[in-house]
UniProtKB/TrEMBL annotation:
Residues 343-401 form the CBS domain. InterPro entries: AMPK_gamma/SDS23_families, CBS_dom, CBS_dom_sf. Transmembrane segments: none annotated. It comes from the Eukaryota. Keywords: CBS domain, Repeat. This is CBS domain-containing protein. The lineage of its organism: Eukaryota, Viridiplantae, Streptophyta, Embryophyta, Tracheophyta. One of its GO terms (cellular component) is nucleus.
Length: 403
């Protein structure tokens, strides 16, 4: 059984994965917003293609079909999500005139960190994929092995945002995909999965926090960092107890006008703003008033238009995807579902105890679609965080012993 696990290639993990939706690196941020708002995925891939892709009629393809290409010419160079746009619009100069800021190329949103997105072959081994992730890769771009038939290609209208080269589509794999795959063979790692995360030594104390009453704008840099680290910003009280979080996952299910709330509200109020079925009317008035006081008329106009158009809609997701572990102390701030047309979860911080087993924490994270779980004591004092990356290190070491 162990040998079979080690023999798996990434193509085995790609079964059923959807083809990537994509943007050209020269697309505008406004165009990226349109794709993000209609996508089932929180992220959209960004591609750089130096050649001119031609359709059968000889015209350049606008749909991402590249029939004549060199692999080295066409590469996924990164990914963007709504959080990138929100943090970008939080800059003072962009708040003054968001309409101008949104005309900039999407490339300005890409983090200047190499290796976050990597191309790999379908034959890449599971062990190699884990090593790449532990070295910092967030997404592994993999060609989907099944080629489109010529007949299908002739009659199928391609999506304007799906990347297809030489009849081949691409998908990508994440830390979550690998963890899910390992969980399906969890018995091979016995007794490690039953050991507590405290005993395994995988609780990290390197966390980003902000006090409940502090301005949310003070967390903008931390939000950008947690997006790269695939974690979250903990919101704590004056005693260091966990109240909630400002999560990139939750923000990714909002729209770009949340930048106005980030710049004008406290951290506690921001949690209430983004975690309801729609932002509370009193907080909407506060945001509008403070934008006006600061003469941020460009964002005020954009914000008011979004509110009047009903830019925040409740999700109709299933209960399982929205349930979360409430904090085990009465008096904590209760919040309902985030506003989104896509699958989201309730935004209470997902928590565990230092004595929780590794497999229990894995299941918690996977069921709530997050890459981490906060670790707290019985009194809600924050101990640290456990991430998928921490878990993968444990499994990688165990795989060494059976290789």
């Amino acid at each position: 059984m162990a040998v079979r696990l080690l023999s798996h290639e990434l193509s085995d993990l790609c079964l059923g994965k959807p083809a990537l939706r994509s943007l050209s690196v020269t697309s505008t941020i406004a165009e990226a917003l349109e794709v993000l708002k209609t996508s089932d995925d929180n992220f959209v891939s960004v591609w750089s293609c130096d050649h001119k892709a031609k359709t059968s009629s000889g015209f350049e393809s606008a749909a991402g079909f590249c029939d004549n290409y060199d692999d080295d010419d066409c590469r996924c160079v990164g990914k963007v999500c709504m959080v990138d746009v929100i943090c970008y619009l939080c800059k003072d100069e962009n708040l003054v005139s968001p309409s101008v800021a949104l005309k900039e190329p999407v490339s300005v949103l890409l983090p200047k960190i190499p290796g976050l997105v990597l191309h790999v072959e379908p034959s890449c081994s599971l062990l190699k994929a884990i090593d790449l992730i532990l070295e910092g890769a967030q997404n592994l771009v993999v060609p989907i092995k099944t080629k489109l038939s010529n007949k299908r290609k002739q009659h199928q209208k391609p999506s304007p945002t799906v990347t297809v080269h030489k009849g081949r589509e691409f998908c990508w794999l994440t830390q979550e995909d690998v963890i899910r795959f390992l969980l399906s063979s969890i018995g091979l790692f016995s007794p490690v999965p039953a050991i507590s995360i405290d005993t395994l030594g995988i609780i990290s104390s390197e966390i980003l926090t902000i006090e409940y009453h502090s301005p949310a704008s003070a967390a903008i840099g931390a939000i950008s960092r947690t997006l790269v680290d695939q974690t979250s910003v903990a919101v704590v009280d004056s005693e260091g107890c966990l109240i909630g979080e400002i999560s990139p996952f939750t923000l990714a299910c909002c729209d770009e006008t949340v930048a106005a709330a980030v710049k004008t509200l406290s951290s506690g109020d921001l949690m209430a703003y983004i975690d309801c079925g729609g932002p509370p009317e009193d907080l909407v008035r506060v945001v509008s008033s403070r934008l006006k006081e600061r003469n941020l008329n460009g964002m005020l106009e954009h914000f008011s238009m979004s509110m009047s158009c009903g830019g925040f809609s409740s999700s109709s997701s299933d209960e399982e995807s929205m349930a979360a572990s409430p904090l085990p102390r009465s008096g904590r701030y209760s919040r309902s579902m985030s506003y989104s047309a896509r699958m989201v979860r309730r935004a209470e911080a997902i928590v565990c105890h230092p004595k929780s087993s590794l497999v229990a924490v894995m299941i918690q994270a996977i069921s709530h679609r997050v890459n981490y779980v906060w670790v707290i004591e019985d009194d809600c004092s924050l101990v640290g965080i456990v991430t998928f990356s921490d878990m993968l290190k444990v499994f990688r070491e165990h795989l060494e012993t059976i290789a």
